Amino acid sequence: ARTNISLSRTNLQIAIVDNETAPVIVELEKTGYTASESHPLIIICAVITDNSSDCAVEFQFEVMLTVNATTEDFSETQLPLVFAACEAIACAEVEVEDDSIAETDESFSVMLERSDSLDSRIELSASIANLTIEGDDDAMVVGFNSTTYTGTETAGHARVCVEVSNPSSGGAVRPFSITMF
User: Fold this and answer.
1) Is the residue at 4 inside a domain?
2) What is the mean pLDDT of the chain?
3) 112 lies in a domain?
4) How many domains does the chain fold into?
5) Do 42 and 103 have their domain in common?
6) Per-residue pLDDT tens over the stretch 147-179
């Protein structure tokens, strides 16, 4: 055996960094959403805005999206937003129902809430947004465009027209029929 070998720097420290202690920050993608009964579908998303690990998120979880509605405007008021592994965004489709009641730009809140499966490392931040239903159920005003029409037996026909006097109400895009007798 050789005796002229000396050992130097014989102590080495190994540090295990626990990257799971850093919280995953989840928040709503936008602070406001707008829907109307003539355009009833809106997409509401939650995003991961802060996470120290290499992958966006290394485990699956879900948060609950709650629409705090006081009327029957929504088909569902609580939906799960499911984050798959390594996915930084999760979305849900919220549908506004046509309840045949004139809206007056009603406002509700949309919020993220903890679900049973939510890991303690996940924090919800900026979790409340405003949801507005635009008033588009104003009654359409429909009437004849003249009070007098004249036809003869020789001419065979007279053009009778009806018109919507407030087509900008939003409800005017809906089909309807009128019976003349």
Assistant:
1) no
2) 71
3) yes
4) 2
5) yes
6) 666 666 666 666 667 666 555 444 444 555 656
Residue 157: the pLDDT is 66
Same domain, 97 and 129: yes
Taking phi first (over 0 means left), then psi (-120 to 50 degrees means alpha), and beta for anything else, what does residue 88 get? alpha
27 & 96 share domain: yes
Name residue 66's beta-bridge partners: 78, 111
What are the tens digits of pLDDT across the range 27-54?
A: 889 888 887 767 778 888 989 887 655 5
Q: Averaged over 107-118, what is the pLDDT?
A: 79
- How much is the pLDDT for 141? 61
User: Exposed e or buried b for every residue in 121-152, given b needs 16+ CB within 10 A?
Assistant: ebebebbebebebbbbbeebeeeeeeeeeeee
User: Tokens in use for 68?
Assistant: 């705090």
Residue 66 belongs to a domain: yes
Classify strands 142-144 and 162-164 as parallel, antiparallel or unpaired: antiparallel
Domain span at residue 106?
22-133
CATH number of the domain that 83 lies in?
A: 2.60.40.2030
Q: How confident is the model at residue 20 (pLDDT cuts 50, 70, 90)?
A: low
| Nearest-angstrom CA–CA distance, 66 and 68 | 6
Q: Give CA 68 to chain center in angstroms.
A: 13
